[in-house]
Amino acid sequence: MGGFPQCFSGVPAVSASPSRRPHASQVQKGLSLHPRVRNVIAVGSGKGGVGKSTTAVNLAVALAKLGARVGLLDADIYGPSVPMMLGLSGRPESPDNKSIEPLRAFGVETMSIGYLIEDETPMIWRGPMATSAMTQFFNDTLWDDLDYLLIDLPPGTGDIQLTLTQKIPLAGAVIVTTPQDIATLDAKKALKMFEKVEVPVLGIVENMAVHTCSNCGQVEHLFGDGGGERMAAQYGVPLLGSLPLDIGIREQGDVGTPITAAAPDSPAAQAYLRAAQRLVEEVAKRPRASIPILSSLL
Q1: What is the DSSP letter of 189?
Q2: Residue 241 near residue 51, CB atoms below 8 Å
Q3: Considering its fold, how many domains does the chain have in total?
Q4: Which of 28, 39, 49, 275 has minimal Cβ neighbours within 10 Å of its Cβ?
Q5: How confident is the model over 49-64, as pLDDT tens digits?
């Protein structure tokens, strides 16, 4: 496994003790809370290739390690990668031919179109069919009583992303970007999309922020320096975390054991844990939902 950036060393480890369950947050006007999910959080990006799915997976595992009840819906329907990153395969069961049981790994409940198709089968679906499938997954999956359900959105700001954010009750959104200007330019478009549909942006995650050479230890900002921080300051939203560019994160995702599960005490995993903790804090600031959900969740 590759070396971790020096700038992440010496940082106190995050405590992973369970905390009080969060309240159910207010969602968009005209939408009702999911009866078994307190907070639905969209994870989006303005473009592909910034590590959105890797971030969503590791944030989900990190939230579970912090004591939360967590689910992850893979809505990246044309490129579902959650099954591979979590080492999951097999067709989910349906007890009544209507609802569907989530698959579980590392304390996270998951659902993905990737469980229902062969690995190399392309999804040649138009937007309405894709959004219909994702809303059905959201509604018909037999989620347990979840504190947080992360939704890994497709990259970009097209019809599918817009429709999903209008149909699914969201407590907020997380934007993933890399530091370079071209990435933050597109990330700003994603942020504005969420603003237009009245979904609060809970924070920005700056991925691949710094790399440390495994041979000489030199620290380099390969994709620029501070782009995520500047974007957060410009739009008045929190920077949840800056994550390293490290081969270990990629390797662990490829073998189906996220870095947050494989090496929870590593600097990279601790960076994800700190980002997850900040996300929890931002959700806690959201107004409480006025309409109660199932009494078992109160």
Answers
A1: H
A2: no
A3: 1
A4: 49
A5: 899 999 999 999 999 9
